[in-house]
Amino acid sequence: MKLTILGSNAAALRWQAHPTAQVLEIAGRTFLIDCGEATQMQLRRSKVKFSRIKQIFISHLHGDHYYGLIGLISSFELLGRKVPLTVYGPKGIKNLITIQLEASEAQLTYPLHFVELNSDTSERVYEDDKVMVDTIPLRHRIYCNGYLFRAKLGQRRIAIEAANEAEIDVAYFNKLKQGYDVLNKHGELIPNASVTLDPHPPKSYAFCSDTMYYPKIIEQLKGIQVLYHESTFLDSHKHLCERTMHSTAKEAARIAKSANVKTLVLGHYSGRYKDLEDFRREAQEIFPEVRLAKDLKEISF
Amino acid sequence: MKLTILGSNAAALRWQAHPTAQVLEIAGRTFLIDCGEATQMQLRRSKVKFSRIKQIFISHLHGDHYYGLIGLISSFELLGRKVPLTVYGPKGIKNLITIQLEASEAQLTYPLHFVELNSDTSERVYEDDKVMVDTIPLRHRIYCNGYLFRAKLGQRRIAIEAANEAEIDVAYFNKLKQGYDVLNKHGELIPNASVTLDPHPPKSYAFCSDTMYYPKIIEQLKGIQVLYHESTFLDSHKHLCERTMHSTAKEAARIAKSANVKTLVLGHYSGRYKDLEDFRREAQEIFPEVRLAKDLKEISF
To answer: DSSP string of A1-46?
Structure first.
C-alpha cells in the first residue's frame, strides 16, 4: 500500500503549498482522494500514472478539496482518455462540474460518472474483488465524508518447503491458496493448514478530512492500519477549532489512540505555521507512530 | 508598462507548464488577464501584489483561461480582502463562479462584481482617468474577446532648464503641465510650448487569445505598442489551425506587421513543442520585434 501526497495544506496561502489531494495505491487499485487546485500539476510532478486513476473520492465542497477536479477532468479529455472515470462526492458536485464542461462545449472522450452522496450514516460506495470503500461521515462546516479503504482478505500463502516435502504437485497450488486439502503424488490427502500460511492481513487506510474532533468515528476506525486525520491547528490555536470545525494535532492523535490504529498521518496544516515538526511533537505526546504528510512525499505501508 | 507572464501555455499538459494568465501594469493600474488553473500559485511566485488587482479580464470559457478564477476569488476571501473586485468575461461566468461559492457556503469579505459580455462588436468595458479598456472580438471555437488596454495621454512635461531660464516660479509648474501659458517672475507671459515637452506617447497593450488568424482585428490594433497574439502552432502544424481555431507564429506575425505595432509577444504554445525558440524564428521571418512569453517572465515596455 502506497500513499502519495500531492497536497498537504489547508487552503493554500503559502508559496508553493498545495491544498489537499492524495493518491492511494491499495490492492492494485489507484484512487485519487480530494483534488485541490493544481492537483493535475502535482500529479505530473509525482510518479503516479494519470491513466491508472479510475475513481476519485471528494470529501466536501470547500474549494481547497475540489477546485482542481474540473481541470483534471478536462486534461483527461485532452489526453484522449477512453477509460471510464467515476467521481464520488457530495450532492451537487455533478452540476458544478457539468456546467463548466458545458460552458467550454467539451466533448469528453471517455464516460464520466458521478455518485452523489448525502447520507449521514456510513455507506459502501465502492466494492470490487480486491477492495471496498465506505464513507466516514465527519463533522465540518458543510457536509463532509471521509473514506475508509480496505483491501479484502487475500489467499492463503503456500509454505513452499512444507508443500515440497509433502510431495504436492504445483498443479494443486491454486487449490491450496483457496484453502482446500489436496492429494499428493502418492494419493495421500494433505491437510491445507500443514502446507500453507495465513493470508497477509489486509491493508486498510482511512482518510478523515476535514473534521472537528469527532469521537463517533472511532468505532468505524478500530484496528485499521493507517489513519490520515486532519490537523489544521496546533494546541496554541485550539480555540479556533470550534468556529472553523477543524482539529488539532493532539485531537487527531487521540482518535488514533482510541481506534488503536498502527500509524497516524497528519496533514491539512494551517498556513500560519512555519515548522511542521511541531505537529509531530504535539501528536506524539499522545500517540507515538506519527507521519507528516508533505507535498510529493510517498509513504509505503 | 510591465507585463508579468504567469502562464504561457495552451492547456497545460507539460510538466511545470502553466495555462494562460498575465498581469499588466499600465498607468498605475494592475490588471489580471485570464486566470488558468494555479494562477494564484503563480501570483505568489511572482512579484505582483495580490491586493493591487481590482479588475480581472477573462477572454473565454475554455478551462485553460479561467479554471483558476474561483480559487483566486476564494483566496482573496481567506486573506480578508475588503477592496471590490470586478470580473469581465463572457456571459455565463457569473453563474459558474457563484454556484461554486454557494456550494462552499462562502461569505465573501469584499464586493464581487461581474460584467458579462456577449457583444460581437468592440465595446469599452472599463475607463477611468488614466486608462481605458476595449474588447477585441476574436474568432475561436466559443465566444471569445481579446482586450485592448490604452493609457490616456498624460500631462505635458516641464523642460526644466528652459523653465528655470525663463524664471518661472515652481508654483506654476502644474499649470504648465496642463498646457497653459504662465507669467514668469517679471510678469511676462511665457508660451507653454517654449518651456514644456510633449507628453510621453501613451502606452498600449492588446491581448489576443485565443483566436484563429483573423485580419478583421488589424484595424483596431493599428499603431498600438505591444501586441500579445496567441501562437499555438508552428507552421508544420498549420493544418490544425482550422479545426482548433488557433494561429501559427507566422500568422501572429502577419497581424503584428499589418497593424504596425512595435513589439509582438507570442504565447499559448501547444505542449507538443520542445524548443520555443522555433516560434521566434518563424515569426521573425515576417516581423522582427518578437518576444516570447514564458512562465514568470517580466517584460517592461
So the answer is: -EEEEEE-BSS--STT--BSEEEEEETTEEEEEEE-TTHHHHHHHS
Residues in chain B whose Cβ is within 8 Å of chain A: 11-16, 18, 37-38, 40-41, 44-45, 61-64, 67-68, 70-71, 74-75, 78-79, 92, 95-96, 99-100, 103-105, 141-142
Q: What is the pTM of this model?
A: 0.91
Q: Are the beta carbons of A99 and B95 separated by less than 8 Å?
A: yes
Angle, in degrees to the nearest 10, between helices B93-103 and A93-103: 160
For residue B99, the chain A residue with the least C-alpha distance is: A96
Measure B231 CA to nearest chain A CA, in Å: 18
Q: What is the pLDDT of residues A162-216, one digit of tens each?
A: 999 999 999 999 999 999 999 999 999 999 999 999 998 899 999 999 999 999 9
Dist. CA B27–CA B50, nearest whole Å:
18
The residue type found at B1 is: M
Contact A16 B141 (CB under 8 A): no
Q: What's the count of helices (H) and strands (E) in chain B, helices before strands?
A: 9, 18
Q: How far is CA A205 from CA A237, A246, B119, B219, in A?
A: 28, 20, 53, 62
Q: Of A70, A78, A105, which has the smallest distance from its Cβ to B67's Cβ?
A: A70
pLDDT tens for residues A79-92? Answer: 999 999 999 999 99
Q: Name the closest residue on chain A to residue B106, using Cα atoms.
A: A62
**ipTM of the prediction:** 0.89
User: Rounded to whole angstroms, how far apart are CA atoms A180 and B129?
Assistant: 87
Cα gap B121→B18, rounded to integer Å: 30
Residue A11: which pLDDT band, with cuts at 50, 70 and 90? confident
Q: What is the DSSP letter of B206?
A: E
φ/ψ (deg, to 5) at B167 = 60, 50
Q: How far are the Cα atoms of A37, A94, A242, B104 from residue A143, in angstroms, in the given order?
A: 20, 15, 16, 10
Catalytic residue among B34, B64, B134, B295: B64
**Distance, C-alpha B297 to centroid of its chain:** 14
Q: How many C-beta atoms lie closer than 10 Å to residue B152's C-beta? A: 14
Nearest CA in chain B to A74: B63
Q: Domains for chain A: give ranges and CATH numbers.
A: 2-154+200-300 (3.60.15.10), 157-196 (no CATH)
